[in-house]
TrEMBL record:
<keyword id="KW-0378">Hydrolase</keyword>
<dbReference type="InterPro" id="IPR007484">
    <property type="entry name" value="Peptidase_M28"/>
</dbReference>
<dbReference type="InterPro" id="IPR041756">
    <property type="entry name" value="M28_SGAP-like"/>
</dbReference>
<feature type="domain" description="Peptidase M28">
    <location>
        <begin position="66"/>
        <end position="271"/>
    </location>
</feature>
<keyword id="KW-0645">Protease</keyword>
<keyword id="KW-0031">Aminopeptidase</keyword>
<comment type="similarity">
    <text>Belongs to the peptidase M28 family. M28A subfamily.</text>
</comment>
<dbReference type="Pfam" id="PF04389">
    <property type="entry name" value="Peptidase_M28"/>
</dbReference>
<protein>
    <submittedName>
        <fullName>Aminopeptidase</fullName>
    </submittedName>
</protein>
<keyword id="KW-0862">Zinc</keyword>
<dbReference type="GO" id="GO:0004177">
    <property type="term" value="F:aminopeptidase activity"/>
</dbReference>
<keyword id="KW-0479">Metal-binding</keyword>
<keyword id="KW-0732">Signal</keyword>
<dbReference type="InterPro" id="IPR006311">
    <property type="entry name" value="TAT_signal"/>
</dbReference>
<dbReference type="InterPro" id="IPR045175">
    <property type="entry name" value="M28_fam"/>
</dbReference>
Length: 282
């Protein structure tokens, strides 16, 4: 898999910051900053050769939007998905939560295009609306899948907060295969990981898991406190929250640890290259 240039990921975060600034300070569902964020991401993907579609839904009296981007080719009966919620809370621009995940999968998708990757399996990327209202966009997507379409999704990888300023390296433990691919990547960095447990049921992997689809993902921490033992292995500050600006107005471009953003973006690329390559055809 290619190295994902963290400078490119940060450039997307700068765009999200500017979009929030130009749209009342946030990128929340039902606000102009959300659709402006989607238009930015869609423009990059259209230019890179993805087949994009915008799925509309209604939530709390406002129209919500999911952005789905398919990389042409691959076996659509074995689709590997990567997703991130694109909406912020109303309190602020939501750069770590979840501009970081949105930017990480966007840059990985652009790397797929740069490589003109020809994976065995079909690659699909998704940016969800209204996650902060209760995973509304991702639930809408799963509900809209025909039963046989669900079985065509061989795995869904979720990236919700991957650049926390006092970072931890957590790997979802929901599916052993998907957990292993991430642990293998971090082993190449000699970076220990921990199992992610606080987010079960709290992000966009939940609707997929409830539909019986294997899920995995990465997380760099929210409002829990980093222990001394964790600071020993990961650096950062013990006794402080992983992200003290979680759901706050200070979740801005300054609220990002570049190293965590870089490692996690590279891990996304590693996982997608591995999983989409499929099992060597016998
Ligand atoms: N990002 C939060 C949801 C959340 C809180 N802890 C975790 C752990 C793993 C994934 C997601 C979460 C939000 O959007 O409110
Ligand atoms: Ca990198
Ligand atoms: Zn949130
Ligand atoms: Zn989130
Ligand atoms: Zn879990």
């Amino acid at each position: 898999a290619p190295d994902i240039p963290v400078a490119n990921v940060k450039a997307h975060l700068t765009q999200f910051q500017q979009i929030a600034k130009a749209n009342g300070g946030n990128r929340a569902h039902g606000r102009s900053g959300y659709k402006a964020s989607l238009d930015y991401v869609k423009g990059k993907l259209d230019a890179a050769g993805f087949t994009t579609s915008v799925q509309q839904f209604s939530s709390s009296g406002a129209t919500g939007y999911n952005l789905i981007a398919d990389w042409p080719g691959g076996d659509t009966s074995r689709t590997v998905m990567a997703g991130a919620h694109l909406d912020s809370v109303t309190e602020g621009p939501g750069i770590n939560d979840n501009g970081s995940g949105s930017a990480g999968i966007l840059e990985t998708a652009l790397a797929v295009s740069r490589a003109q990757l020809k994976p065995d399996k079909h690659l699909r990327f998704a940016w969800w609306g209204a996650e902060e209202l209760g995973m509304v966009g991702s639930q809408h997507y799963v509900n809209s899948l025909a039963a046989d379409d669900r079985s065509k999704i061989s795995g869904y990888l979720n990236f919700d907060m991957i650049g926390s300023p006092n970072p931890g390296y957590f790997v979802y433990d929901d599916d052993p295969t998907l957990e292993k691919v991430f642990k293998d990547y971090f082993a190449t960095l000699s970076l220990p990981t921990e199992i992610e447990t606080e987010g079960d049921g709290r992000s966009d992997h939940a609707p997929f898991k409830n539909a019986g689809i294997p899920v995995g993902g990465l997380f760099s921490g929210a409002d829990y406190t980093k222990t001394a033992a964790q600071a020993q292995k990961w650096g950062g500050s013990a006794g402080k929250e992983f992200d003290a600006c979680y759901h706050a107005s200070c979740d801005t471009s300054a609220n990002i640890d570049d190293t965590a953003l870089d490692h996690n973006s590279d891990a996304i690329a590693y996982a997608l290259w591995q999983l989409a390559a499929g099992t060597p055809s016998s």
